[in-house]
Specification:
The longest helix has 30 residues, at about 180-210. The protein contains 20 helices and 15 strands. The chain is globular and about 80 Å long. Helix 6 packs across helix 8 and helix 10 crosses helix 13 (about 365-380). It is an alpha+beta fold. The chain has 3 domains: about 5-105, Ubiquitin-like (UB roll) (Roll); about 115-305, Alpha-Beta Plaits (2-Layer Sandwich); about 310-535, Peroxidase, domain 2 (Orthogonal Bundle), CATH 1.10.420.10. Bound molecules: FE2/S2 (inorganic) cluster. FE2/S2 (inorganic) cluster binds next to loops. It is a multi-pass membrane protein. It is found in: Cell membrane. Keywords: Cell membrane, Membrane.
Protein backbone atom coordinates (compact mmCIF):
# COMPACT_ATOMS: atom_id res chain seq x y z
CA UNK A 1 0.00 0.00 0.00
CA UNK A 2 1.46 3.36 -1.07
CA UNK A 3 2.08 6.02 1.61
CA UNK A 4 -0.67 8.57 2.13
CA UNK A 5 0.27 12.21 1.85
CA UNK A 6 -1.66 15.47 2.12
CA UNK A 7 -2.28 17.64 -0.89
CA UNK A 8 -3.70 21.06 -0.04
CA UNK A 9 -5.54 23.03 -2.74
CA UNK A 10 -5.57 26.72 -1.90
CA UNK A 11 -9.13 27.94 -1.20
CA UNK A 12 -10.44 24.41 -1.84
CA UNK A 13 -9.29 22.24 1.05
CA UNK A 14 -6.86 19.48 1.98
CA UNK A 15 -7.13 15.97 0.55
CA UNK A 16 -5.18 12.79 1.00
CA UNK A 17 -3.35 11.31 -1.95
CA UNK A 18 -1.17 8.33 -2.70
CA UNK A 19 2.56 8.93 -2.83
CA UNK A 20 3.70 8.46 -6.44
CA UNK A 21 0.40 9.47 -8.03
CA UNK A 22 0.19 12.53 -10.26
CA UNK A 23 -1.53 15.63 -8.92
CA UNK A 24 -4.21 15.17 -11.56
CA UNK A 25 -4.86 11.58 -10.46
CA UNK A 26 -5.14 12.79 -6.86
CA UNK A 27 -7.58 15.54 -7.87
CA UNK A 28 -9.86 13.24 -9.81
CA UNK A 29 -9.80 10.61 -7.08
CA UNK A 30 -10.91 13.26 -4.60
CA UNK A 31 -13.77 14.43 -6.82
CA UNK A 32 -12.12 17.71 -7.85
CA UNK A 33 -13.11 18.65 -11.41
CA UNK A 34 -9.53 19.38 -12.43
CA UNK A 35 -9.32 20.49 -16.09
CA UNK A 36 -7.34 18.13 -18.36
CA UNK A 37 -8.45 18.89 -21.89
CA UNK A 38 -5.74 16.81 -23.65
CA UNK A 39 -6.43 13.84 -21.41
CA UNK A 40 -3.23 14.15 -19.40
CA UNK A 41 -0.82 14.06 -22.33
CA UNK A 42 1.14 17.27 -21.66
CA UNK A 43 -0.29 19.00 -24.70
CA UNK A 44 -2.85 21.53 -23.45
CA UNK A 45 -1.61 23.02 -20.12
CA UNK A 46 -5.18 23.25 -18.75
CA UNK A 47 -4.17 21.10 -15.78
CA UNK A 48 -1.40 23.48 -14.68
CA UNK A 49 -1.02 24.39 -11.04
CA UNK A 50 1.15 26.74 -9.05
CA UNK A 51 3.11 24.95 -6.33
CA UNK A 52 3.00 27.17 -3.24
CA UNK A 53 4.80 24.80 -0.86
CA UNK A 54 6.56 21.46 -1.09
CA UNK A 55 8.15 21.78 -4.53
CA UNK A 56 10.90 19.44 -3.30
CA UNK A 57 8.24 16.77 -2.75
CA UNK A 58 7.41 16.68 -6.47
CA UNK A 59 9.30 14.50 -8.92
CA UNK A 60 11.27 16.45 -11.56
CA UNK A 61 9.61 17.49 -14.82
CA UNK A 62 9.21 14.83 -17.50
CA UNK A 63 10.63 15.59 -20.96
CA UNK A 64 7.09 16.23 -22.22
CA UNK A 65 6.42 18.67 -19.39
CA UNK A 66 9.72 20.47 -20.01
CA UNK A 67 8.78 20.89 -23.67
CA UNK A 68 5.40 22.44 -22.92
CA UNK A 69 6.80 24.57 -20.08
CA UNK A 70 9.38 26.02 -22.48
CA UNK A 71 6.79 26.70 -25.15
CA UNK A 72 4.41 28.39 -22.72
CA UNK A 73 7.24 30.13 -20.86
CA UNK A 74 6.03 28.85 -17.48
CA UNK A 75 7.31 30.81 -14.54
CA UNK A 76 9.14 29.15 -11.67
CA UNK A 77 6.70 27.09 -9.55
CA UNK A 78 4.23 26.19 -12.32
CA UNK A 79 3.77 22.44 -12.92
CA UNK A 80 1.53 20.29 -15.08
CA UNK A 81 -0.72 18.31 -12.74
CA UNK A 82 -0.94 15.45 -15.24
CA UNK A 83 2.86 14.99 -15.17
CA UNK A 84 3.94 16.01 -11.66
CA UNK A 85 4.14 13.04 -9.30
CA UNK A 86 3.96 13.76 -5.60
CA UNK A 87 6.16 12.10 -2.99
CA UNK A 88 5.30 14.22 0.03
CA UNK A 89 2.93 16.92 1.28
CA UNK A 90 2.41 19.90 -0.99
CA UNK A 91 0.24 23.00 -1.27
CA UNK A 92 -0.96 24.03 -4.71
CA UNK A 93 -3.29 26.45 -6.47
CA UNK A 94 -5.23 25.39 -9.55
CA UNK A 95 -4.93 27.96 -12.33
CA UNK A 96 -7.56 26.86 -14.85
CA UNK A 97 -10.88 26.68 -13.09
CA UNK A 98 -13.65 26.46 -15.68
CA UNK A 99 -14.43 25.94 -19.38
CA UNK A 100 -13.78 29.58 -20.26
CA UNK A 101 -10.36 29.44 -18.57
CA UNK A 102 -9.64 26.21 -20.42
CA UNK A 103 -10.60 27.70 -23.80
CA UNK A 104 -8.31 30.67 -23.16
CA UNK A 105 -5.43 28.43 -22.04
CA UNK A 106 -5.67 26.13 -25.04
CA UNK A 107 -6.05 28.89 -27.62
CA UNK A 108 -2.95 30.73 -26.38
CA UNK A 109 -0.28 29.39 -28.68
CA UNK A 110 2.73 31.27 -27.32
CA UNK A 111 3.93 32.09 -23.82
CA UNK A 112 1.37 33.27 -21.27
CA UNK A 113 1.44 36.79 -19.82
CA UNK A 114 4.67 37.73 -18.09
CA UNK A 115 6.64 40.80 -17.12
CA UNK A 116 9.50 42.19 -19.17
CA UNK A 117 11.72 45.24 -18.87
CA UNK A 118 11.45 46.82 -22.29
CA UNK A 119 12.16 50.01 -24.19
CA UNK A 120 8.91 51.34 -25.63
CA UNK A 121 8.63 53.68 -28.62
CA UNK A 122 5.56 55.68 -29.62
CA UNK A 123 5.45 57.79 -32.78
CA UNK A 124 2.79 59.97 -34.30
CA UNK A 125 2.42 62.27 -37.33
CA UNK A 126 1.56 65.77 -36.15
CA UNK A 127 -1.69 67.23 -37.48
CA UNK A 128 -2.42 64.19 -39.59
CA UNK A 129 -6.22 64.44 -39.11
CA UNK A 130 -6.61 67.84 -40.88
CA UNK A 131 -4.23 66.60 -43.59
CA UNK A 132 -6.35 63.45 -44.09
CA UNK A 133 -9.54 65.52 -44.29
CA UNK A 134 -8.13 67.30 -47.33
CA UNK A 135 -7.25 64.05 -49.20
CA UNK A 136 -9.09 61.26 -51.00
CA UNK A 137 -9.48 58.00 -49.00
CA UNK A 138 -7.29 56.08 -51.49
CA UNK A 139 -4.50 58.64 -51.12
CA UNK A 140 -4.62 58.48 -47.34
CA UNK A 141 -4.16 54.71 -47.26
CA UNK A 142 -1.45 54.89 -49.90
CA UNK A 143 0.62 57.59 -48.20
CA UNK A 144 0.21 55.96 -44.79
CA UNK A 145 1.51 52.66 -46.14
CA UNK A 146 4.46 54.43 -47.71
CA UNK A 147 5.17 56.16 -44.40
CA UNK A 148 4.78 52.92 -42.39
CA UNK A 149 7.17 51.10 -44.74
CA UNK A 150 9.91 53.65 -44.10
CA UNK A 151 9.33 53.92 -40.35
CA UNK A 152 8.76 50.18 -39.89
CA UNK A 153 12.10 49.38 -41.53
CA UNK A 154 13.91 51.64 -39.05
CA UNK A 155 12.26 49.72 -36.19
CA UNK A 156 12.75 46.21 -37.56
CA UNK A 157 16.34 46.85 -38.70
CA UNK A 158 17.19 47.81 -35.13
CA UNK A 159 15.76 44.70 -33.52
CA UNK A 160 12.39 46.23 -32.60
CA UNK A 161 8.95 44.66 -32.74
CA UNK A 162 6.09 46.68 -34.24
CA UNK A 163 3.39 46.14 -31.67
CA UNK A 164 0.58 47.97 -33.39
CA UNK A 165 -0.50 50.86 -35.61
CA UNK A 166 -2.86 53.30 -33.97
CA UNK A 167 -4.23 55.44 -36.80
CA UNK A 168 -1.07 57.15 -38.04
CA UNK A 169 0.80 56.24 -34.84
CA UNK A 170 3.16 53.34 -34.21
CA UNK A 171 3.91 51.52 -30.97
CA UNK A 172 7.10 49.44 -30.96
CA UNK A 173 8.90 47.32 -28.35
CA UNK A 174 12.63 46.73 -27.98
CA UNK A 175 14.22 43.99 -25.89
CA UNK A 176 11.98 40.98 -26.47
CA UNK A 177 15.05 38.89 -27.30
CA UNK A 178 16.60 39.33 -23.87
CA UNK A 179 19.23 41.90 -24.83
CA UNK A 180 20.99 43.85 -22.05
CA UNK A 181 18.93 46.85 -20.95
CA UNK A 182 21.44 49.32 -22.42
CA UNK A 183 21.16 47.59 -25.78
CA UNK A 184 17.35 47.69 -25.67
CA UNK A 185 17.47 51.45 -25.18
CA UNK A 186 20.27 52.00 -27.67
CA UNK A 187 18.32 50.06 -30.33
CA UNK A 188 15.14 52.04 -29.66
CA UNK A 189 17.10 55.31 -29.77
CA UNK A 190 18.78 54.35 -33.02
CA UNK A 191 15.42 53.39 -34.55
CA UNK A 192 13.95 56.74 -33.48
CA UNK A 193 16.84 58.67 -35.04
CA UNK A 194 16.55 56.65 -38.26
CA UNK A 195 12.80 57.34 -38.35
CA UNK A 196 13.44 61.07 -38.19
CA UNK A 197 16.07 60.78 -40.94
CA UNK A 198 13.78 58.53 -43.03
CA UNK A 199 11.04 61.12 -42.81
CA UNK A 200 12.99 63.28 -45.28
CA UNK A 201 12.48 60.62 -47.98
CA UNK A 202 8.79 60.33 -47.17
CA UNK A 203 8.45 64.11 -47.22
CA UNK A 204 10.02 64.41 -50.68
CA UNK A 205 7.14 62.28 -51.95
CA UNK A 206 4.45 63.97 -49.82
CA UNK A 207 5.58 67.43 -50.89
CA UNK A 208 5.72 66.50 -54.56
CA UNK A 209 2.24 64.97 -54.63
CA UNK A 210 0.36 66.84 -51.90
CA UNK A 211 2.31 70.06 -51.47
CA UNK A 212 2.71 69.46 -47.73
CA UNK A 213 5.24 67.96 -45.30
CA UNK A 214 4.86 65.64 -42.32
CA UNK A 215 6.38 66.28 -38.92
CA UNK A 216 6.59 63.50 -36.37
CA UNK A 217 7.01 63.19 -32.62
CA UNK A 218 8.56 60.17 -30.91
CA UNK A 219 8.36 59.25 -27.21
CA UNK A 220 10.78 56.77 -25.62
CA UNK A 221 10.45 55.13 -22.23
CA UNK A 222 11.98 52.17 -20.41
CA UNK A 223 10.16 50.14 -17.78
CA UNK A 224 8.44 46.96 -16.71
CA UNK A 225 5.43 45.96 -18.80
CA UNK A 226 3.27 42.88 -18.99
CA UNK A 227 3.46 41.16 -22.37
CA UNK A 228 1.30 38.39 -23.73
CA UNK A 229 -1.40 37.49 -26.20
CA UNK A 230 -4.73 39.21 -25.62
CA UNK A 231 -8.04 39.23 -27.42
CA UNK A 232 -10.83 36.91 -28.46
CA UNK A 233 -9.69 33.26 -28.74
CA UNK A 234 -10.20 33.51 -32.53
CA UNK A 235 -8.26 36.75 -32.88
CA UNK A 236 -5.34 37.10 -30.51
CA UNK A 237 -2.60 39.68 -30.69
CA UNK A 238 0.67 39.90 -28.85
CA UNK A 239 1.00 43.21 -27.01
CA UNK A 240 2.41 45.00 -24.00
CA UNK A 241 0.32 46.61 -21.28
CA UNK A 242 0.96 48.71 -18.23
CA UNK A 243 2.02 52.08 -16.98
CA UNK A 244 5.25 51.96 -19.01
CA UNK A 245 3.25 51.89 -22.24
CA UNK A 246 1.03 54.81 -21.17
CA UNK A 247 4.09 56.82 -20.16
CA UNK A 248 5.77 56.34 -23.56
CA UNK A 249 2.55 57.44 -25.28
CA UNK A 250 2.27 60.55 -23.10
CA UNK A 251 5.89 61.47 -23.69
CA UNK A 252 5.18 61.36 -27.42
CA UNK A 253 2.23 63.75 -26.88
CA UNK A 254 4.62 66.20 -25.21
CA UNK A 255 7.00 66.46 -28.19
CA UNK A 256 4.85 69.01 -30.02
CA UNK A 257 4.74 71.45 -27.12
CA UNK A 258 8.48 71.00 -26.53
CA UNK A 259 9.14 71.48 -30.24
CA UNK A 260 11.31 68.36 -30.19
CA UNK A 261 11.24 65.34 -32.50
CA UNK A 262 12.36 62.74 -29.94
CA UNK A 263 11.91 62.89 -26.17
CA UNK A 264 13.00 60.19 -23.72
CA UNK A 265 12.21 59.61 -20.06
CA UNK A 266 14.83 59.67 -17.32
CA UNK A 267 14.41 55.88 -16.91
CA UNK A 268 15.23 55.45 -20.59
CA UNK A 269 18.30 57.68 -20.41
CA UNK A 270 19.57 56.01 -17.20
CA UNK A 271 19.21 52.51 -18.58
CA UNK A 272 20.73 53.47 -21.92
CA UNK A 273 23.88 54.29 -19.90
CA UNK A 274 26.42 55.84 -22.24
CA UNK A 275 24.96 54.46 -25.45
CA UNK A 276 23.03 57.65 -26.27
CA UNK A 277 23.59 61.41 -26.27
CA UNK A 278 20.96 63.86 -25.09
CA UNK A 279 20.47 67.60 -25.51
CA UNK A 280 17.82 69.84 -23.98
CA UNK A 281 16.12 68.78 -20.75
CA UNK A 282 12.48 69.56 -19.93
CA UNK A 283 10.24 69.23 -16.92
CA UNK A 284 6.79 68.25 -18.12
CA UNK A 285 3.56 67.22 -16.47
CA UNK A 286 2.33 64.14 -18.31
CA UNK A 287 -1.41 63.57 -18.62
CA UNK A 288 -2.76 61.64 -15.64
CA UNK A 289 0.43 62.08 -13.59
CA UNK A 290 0.60 64.37 -10.58
CA UNK A 291 4.33 64.96 -10.64
CA UNK A 292 6.36 66.65 -13.32
CA UNK A 293 8.68 64.34 -15.21
CA UNK A 294 12.16 65.01 -16.52
CA UNK A 295 12.35 64.49 -20.28
CA UNK A 296 15.46 64.53 -22.45
CA UNK A 297 15.77 65.42 -26.10
CA UNK A 298 17.62 62.64 -27.90
CA UNK A 299 20.40 63.86 -30.16
CA UNK A 300 22.55 60.83 -31.15
CA UNK A 301 23.77 57.32 -30.34
CA UNK A 302 27.26 56.39 -29.15
CA UNK A 303 27.93 53.54 -31.51
CA UNK A 304 31.14 52.30 -29.87
CA UNK A 305 29.75 51.69 -26.41
CA UNK A 306 28.59 48.17 -27.21
CA UNK A 307 32.06 46.88 -27.88
CA UNK A 308 34.23 45.00 -25.41
CA UNK A 309 32.27 44.75 -22.22
CA UNK A 310 28.97 44.22 -24.06
CA UNK A 311 30.46 41.32 -25.99
CA UNK A 312 31.46 39.60 -22.73
CA UNK A 313 28.10 40.47 -21.17
CA UNK A 314 26.33 38.78 -24.06
CA UNK A 315 28.58 35.74 -23.74
CA UNK A 316 27.87 35.53 -20.00
CA UNK A 317 24.12 35.83 -20.57
CA UNK A 318 24.20 32.96 -23.03
CA UNK A 319 26.16 30.75 -20.61
CA UNK A 320 24.67 31.53 -17.19
CA UNK A 321 21.83 29.23 -16.05
CA UNK A 322 19.21 30.97 -13.92
CA UNK A 323 19.75 28.47 -11.13
CA UNK A 324 23.33 29.61 -10.56
CA UNK A 325 22.61 33.37 -10.47
CA UNK A 326 22.27 33.62 -6.65
CA UNK A 327 25.64 31.92 -6.12
CA UNK A 328 27.33 34.11 -8.73
CA UNK A 329 26.06 37.29 -7.08
CA UNK A 330 27.17 35.99 -3.67
CA UNK A 331 30.61 35.25 -5.10
CA UNK A 332 30.86 38.85 -6.37
CA UNK A 333 30.12 40.11 -2.83
CA UNK A 334 32.67 37.76 -1.29
CA UNK A 335 35.26 38.85 -3.86
CA UNK A 336 34.70 42.49 -2.88
CA UNK A 337 34.56 41.95 0.89
CA UNK A 338 37.76 39.86 0.85
CA UNK A 339 39.50 42.34 -1.49
CA UNK A 340 39.97 39.89 -4.32
CA UNK A 341 40.86 36.66 -2.51
CA UNK A 342 38.77 34.58 -4.91
CA UNK A 343 40.17 35.98 -8.14
CA UNK A 344 43.70 35.56 -6.76
CA UNK A 345 43.00 31.91 -5.93
CA UNK A 346 41.46 31.08 -9.32
CA UNK A 347 44.81 29.94 -10.67
CA UNK A 348 45.88 28.26 -7.42
CA UNK A 349 43.98 25.06 -6.78
CA UNK A 350 45.20 24.61 -3.22
CA UNK A 351 44.38 28.18 -2.20
CA UNK A 352 40.91 27.85 -3.73
CA UNK A 353 40.29 24.59 -1.89
CA UNK A 354 41.15 26.31 1.37
CA UNK A 355 38.85 29.23 0.60
CA UNK A 356 35.95 26.95 -0.26
CA UNK A 357 36.49 24.90 2.90
CA UNK A 358 35.74 28.01 4.98
CA UNK A 359 32.12 27.80 6.16
CA UNK A 360 31.57 31.46 5.16
CA UNK A 361 32.06 30.36 1.56
CA UNK A 362 29.96 27.23 1.71
CA UNK A 363 28.12 26.51 -1.55
CA UNK A 364 30.28 28.75 -3.75
CA UNK A 365 32.06 25.90 -5.59
CA UNK A 366 29.59 25.85 -8.56
CA UNK A 367 30.06 29.60 -9.01
CA UNK A 368 33.85 29.14 -9.12
CA UNK A 369 33.48 26.35 -11.71
CA UNK A 370 31.27 28.65 -13.77
CA UNK A 371 33.81 31.50 -13.65
CA UNK A 372 36.62 29.12 -14.66
CA UNK A 373 34.53 27.80 -17.54
CA UNK A 374 33.69 31.31 -18.76
CA UNK A 375 37.31 32.46 -18.43
CA UNK A 376 38.33 29.53 -20.65
CA UNK A 377 35.60 30.43 -23.14
CA UNK A 378 36.64 34.09 -23.21
CA UNK A 379 40.21 33.04 -24.05
CA UNK A 380 39.16 30.35 -26.54
CA UNK A 381 36.84 32.68 -28.46
CA UNK A 382 39.37 35.52 -28.27
CA UNK A 383 36.84 37.84 -26.61
CA UNK A 384 38.09 41.15 -25.21
CA UNK A 385 40.52 40.96 -22.31
CA UNK A 386 39.05 40.91 -18.80
CA UNK A 387 40.81 40.24 -15.49
CA UNK A 388 39.54 37.38 -13.23
CA UNK A 389 38.27 39.87 -10.66
CA UNK A 390 36.44 41.94 -13.30
CA UNK A 391 34.93 38.75 -14.68
CA UNK A 392 33.50 37.92 -11.24
CA UNK A 393 32.05 41.43 -10.83
CA UNK A 394 30.63 41.51 -14.36
CA UNK A 395 29.10 38.06 -13.78
CA UNK A 396 27.46 39.36 -10.60
CA UNK A 397 25.97 42.25 -12.58
CA UNK A 398 24.70 39.88 -15.27
CA UNK A 399 23.16 37.64 -12.57
CA UNK A 400 21.20 40.65 -11.30
CA UNK A 401 20.08 41.56 -14.80
CA UNK A 402 19.11 38.00 -15.75
CA UNK A 403 16.86 37.70 -12.71
CA UNK A 404 14.98 40.90 -13.54
CA UNK A 405 17.06 43.36 -11.52
CA UNK A 406 18.63 46.63 -12.69
CA UNK A 407 21.19 46.83 -15.44
CA UNK A 408 24.55 47.65 -13.83
CA UNK A 409 26.78 49.51 -16.29
CA UNK A 410 30.26 48.15 -15.65
CA UNK A 411 33.02 49.60 -17.77
CA UNK A 412 36.34 47.90 -18.34
CA UNK A 413 38.87 48.29 -16.91
CA UNK A 414 37.08 48.94 -13.61
CA UNK A 415 38.41 52.22 -12.31
CA UNK A 416 39.52 51.54 -8.73
CA UNK A 417 38.77 54.24 -6.19
CA UNK A 418 39.97 52.56 -3.04
CA UNK A 419 40.92 54.99 -0.30
CA UNK A 420 41.65 52.13 2.09
CA UNK A 421 45.25 51.28 2.88
CA UNK A 422 46.03 47.80 1.54
CA UNK A 423 47.60 46.97 4.92
CA UNK A 424 44.26 47.46 6.68
CA UNK A 425 42.38 44.23 7.20
CA UNK A 426 39.79 43.42 4.53
CA UNK A 427 36.15 43.93 5.64
CA UNK A 428 35.41 40.19 5.54
CA UNK A 429 32.07 38.47 5.05
CA UNK A 430 29.18 39.78 7.20
CA UNK A 431 28.13 37.27 9.86
CA UNK A 432 24.58 36.08 10.22
CA UNK A 433 24.34 36.90 13.93
CA UNK A 434 26.24 40.17 13.68
CA UNK A 435 24.77 43.15 15.55
CA UNK A 436 24.04 46.40 13.76
CA UNK A 437 27.13 48.41 14.91
CA UNK A 438 29.53 45.63 13.88
CA UNK A 439 27.80 45.34 10.52
CA UNK A 440 28.07 49.06 9.90
CA UNK A 441 31.79 49.03 10.77
CA UNK A 442 32.35 46.15 8.38
CA UNK A 443 30.69 47.99 5.49
CA UNK A 444 32.54 51.21 6.34
CA UNK A 445 35.79 49.26 6.07
CA UNK A 446 34.63 48.39 2.55
CA UNK A 447 34.15 52.11 1.85
CA UNK A 448 30.34 51.83 1.93
CA UNK A 449 27.86 53.85 3.95
CA UNK A 450 24.64 52.93 5.72
CA UNK A 451 22.41 53.44 2.68
CA UNK A 452 24.68 51.36 0.47
CA UNK A 453 24.78 48.63 3.09
CA UNK A 454 20.97 48.38 3.17
CA UNK A 455 20.62 48.57 -0.62
CA UNK A 456 23.18 45.77 -1.13
CA UNK A 457 21.41 43.61 1.44
CA UNK A 458 18.43 43.62 -0.92
CA UNK A 459 20.40 40.99 -2.87
CA UNK A 460 18.98 38.53 -0.35
CA UNK A 461 15.94 38.50 -2.61
CA UNK A 462 17.90 35.81 -4.49
CA UNK A 463 19.00 32.39 -3.31
CA UNK A 464 18.85 30.48 -0.07
CA UNK A 465 20.32 30.21 3.41
CA UNK A 466 20.47 26.88 5.25
CA UNK A 467 18.49 25.24 2.46
CA UNK A 468 15.59 27.70 2.68
CA UNK A 469 15.01 30.39 0.10
CA UNK A 470 14.68 34.02 1.17
CA UNK A 471 11.61 34.76 -0.96
CA UNK A 472 8.95 32.78 -2.82
CA UNK A 473 10.97 32.98 -6.05
CA UNK A 474 14.72 32.65 -5.37
CA UNK A 475 15.53 33.50 -9.00
CA UNK A 476 13.77 36.82 -9.22
CA UNK A 477 15.51 40.04 -8.24
CA UNK A 478 12.95 42.41 -6.74
CA UNK A 479 12.21 44.24 -3.48
CA UNK A 480 10.35 41.32 -1.92
CA UNK A 481 13.00 40.72 0.76
CA UNK A 482 12.49 44.25 2.11
CA UNK A 483 8.74 43.73 2.13
CA UNK A 484 9.23 40.51 4.09
CA UNK A 485 11.56 42.24 6.53
CA UNK A 486 9.03 44.97 7.12
CA UNK A 487 6.24 42.48 7.72
CA UNK A 488 8.66 40.72 10.06
CA UNK A 489 7.56 37.65 8.17
CA UNK A 490 9.17 34.77 10.03
CA UNK A 491 7.59 31.99 7.93
CA UNK A 492 9.33 28.76 8.75
CA UNK A 493 9.53 27.83 5.09
CA UNK A 494 11.56 30.97 4.23
CA UNK A 495 14.94 32.17 5.46
CA UNK A 496 15.62 35.52 7.13
CA UNK A 497 18.97 36.54 8.57
CA UNK A 498 19.11 37.87 12.11
CA UNK A 499 21.64 40.50 10.94
CA UNK A 500 19.09 41.87 8.44
CA UNK A 501 16.39 42.10 11.13
CA UNK A 502 18.80 44.39 12.97
CA UNK A 503 18.00 47.03 10.33
CA UNK A 504 14.54 47.43 11.81
CA UNK A 505 15.96 48.43 15.20
CA UNK A 506 17.77 51.49 13.86
CA UNK A 507 15.57 54.44 12.88
CA UNK A 508 17.59 55.41 9.78
CA UNK A 509 18.02 51.94 8.36
CA UNK A 510 14.39 51.14 9.05
CA UNK A 511 13.40 54.15 6.94
CA UNK A 512 15.56 52.82 4.12
CA UNK A 513 13.94 49.38 4.37
CA UNK A 514 10.53 51.09 4.18
CA UNK A 515 11.61 53.15 1.19
CA UNK A 516 12.92 50.14 -0.75
CA UNK A 517 9.93 47.99 0.20
CA UNK A 518 7.59 50.64 -1.19
CA UNK A 519 9.48 51.68 -4.32
CA UNK A 520 11.27 49.05 -6.36
CA UNK A 521 12.72 51.51 -8.89
CA UNK A 522 14.29 53.44 -6.03
CA UNK A 523 15.80 50.25 -4.67
CA UNK A 524 17.09 49.29 -8.13
CA UNK A 525 18.79 52.67 -8.58
CA UNK A 526 20.44 52.56 -5.16
CA UNK A 527 21.47 48.94 -5.59
CA UNK A 528 23.05 49.74 -8.96
CA UNK A 529 25.04 52.63 -7.51
CA UNK A 530 26.07 50.72 -4.38
CA UNK A 531 27.24 47.73 -6.41
CA UNK A 532 29.35 49.95 -8.65
CA UNK A 533 30.86 51.68 -5.64
CA UNK A 534 31.53 48.37 -3.89
CA UNK A 535 33.54 46.98 -6.81
CA UNK A 536 35.46 50.24 -7.28
CA UNK A 537 36.38 50.40 -3.60
CA UNK A 538 37.36 46.72 -3.31
S1 LIG B 1 -3.98 17.63 -19.10
FE1 LIG B 1 -3.24 18.58 -20.83
S2 LIG B 1 -1.28 19.15 -20.21
FE2 LIG B 1 -2.00 18.14 -18.49
Amino acid sequence: MADEITLTYEHEGAFSAESGSTILEASLKNGISHMHVCGGNARCSTCRVMVLDGMDNLEPQTDEEKKLARKKNFEEGIRLACQARIRGDARIRRLVMDDTDAEIAVSTSGPGGHEERLAILFSDIRDFTPFAERQLPYDIIHILNRYFKQMGSAIIDNGGHIDKYIGDGIMALFGLNGEPDAEKCRNAARAALEMVRGLHDVNEYVEKHFGEKFRIGIGLHFGRVVVGEVGHPKHREFTALGDGVNTASRIESTTKKANASILASEEFVTNACDTIKVGRVFLARLKGKAERKKLYELSACNENQLDGVMIIRRYLKGKMPLTITPKILRLAFHEAMTRGEFSKALSDEEAMEQLLADEDNEGLAPAISFINEVADGVARHELPTISPSELIYLSGAVAVELTGGPYIPIELPIEKKSVVEPSIQSPGIPREMEGFPALLIRFRRAGLDRKEMVALTGAHTLGKAHGRQFTENPYRFDNEYFRRLLRDDMSLSLAMLASDREFLKDEKTRQLVELYAGDEEFFFNDFRNAYLKMIRMA
